[in-house]
Amino acid sequence: MRFRGKSIRRKIVALLLVPLLSLTAIWCFATVLTGRAAQSLFSVSYIVEKAAYPTEDTVHVLQQERRQTLVYLADPRASDALSALRRSRAATDKAVAKIRKNAKDEKLREETGEATAERLTSILDALDGIDSLRRSVGDGTVNRSQALDLYNRLVDPCYALLANLHVLDNVEMDKQSRALVNVSRAHELLSREDALLGSALVAGRITRDEIRDVSDLVAQRSLMYDVSLPLLPSSERERFTRFWKNADTAPLRVAEQSVINASPGTPAV
């Protein structure tokens, strides 16, 4: 009986051991997955903090400096044109210094991978030319159209990095991330249009080429919204749609059409 009792206990232990081992395996697997997920989130947070945010900040200050530069070139004698330009340049220098500092972070380059590190290097290479561009503006050896193009070349590498910054292994989130970057690029097109028209108003004239450029920018922006917004959640998509249809944006839409339909000469905005 003692032997049989031991046998029964062994069978019970064996029967319990199978699910116990299974649960232990599942728990270990879940722990590994949770650990990987946590590590992935920490990695994402680090990349966003060190690469994405500084790049977005750099785009923003470059947009401001671009506009102030074109306004200055439109009328260098304006009393506040040079001081406003200097303030915008100081803001740009601060943002660029931060992105240069972060680019030296070995951990960031390891987390992002070789392709992203190369795109970050491309941003820095482009920004190396900003001092030369500023000197050309000061010397008056570039016009508004040339300055606009040169500043655009500083901004474009930033969006190349943001558009290819894959931080989550999730197809749906990746689509939405790309869509948001494209929505931001649509804003960049609007910023280019603003710089162009703002300086034309200061200059008191608009050329045929500038009218064509405005028309192209409006068309590109609309196309970018058409392609990108359907990839966003419905609530976000509806928010953008309402924004562009409400009364606050009506003056912009009217002004754009006025420029597109205008003849070269005094801006009709």
- CATH fold-level topology of the largest domain: Four Helix Bundle (Hemerythrin (Met), subunit A)
Largest beta-sheet details: none
Number of domains: 2
CATH architecture of the largest domain: Up-down Bundle
Name the average pLDDT.
82
- How would you classify the quaternary structure? single chain
Beta percentage is under 5%
Percent range of helical residues:
over 70%
Helix segment count?
10
Low-pLDDT ranges: 1-5, 11-41
**Which secondary-structure class do the elements indicate?**
mainly alpha
Q: How large is the radius of gyration? A: 28 Å
Overall CATH class of the largest domain: Mainly Alpha
Count the strands? 0
Ends distance: 103 Å
**Helix-strand topology string:** HHHHHHHHHH
Apparent shape: flat
What would you note in describing this structure?
By secondary structure, the chain is mainly α. Helix content is 83%, strand content 0%. It has helices at 2-74, 81-103, 106-112, 114-127, 130-139, 144-163, 171-203, 208-228, 234-245, 250-260. The longest helix has 73 residues, at 2-74. 24% of the residues are buried. Residues 1-5 and 11-41 have low confidence and may be disordered. Keywords: Kinase, Phosphoprotein, Transferase. One of its GO terms (biological process) is phosphorelay signal transduction system.
Question: Which keywords apply here?
Answer:
269 residues, mainly alpha, Four Helix Bundle (Hemerythrin (Met), subunit A), 2 domains, 10 helices, disordered N terminus, kinase, TCS_sensor_his_kinase
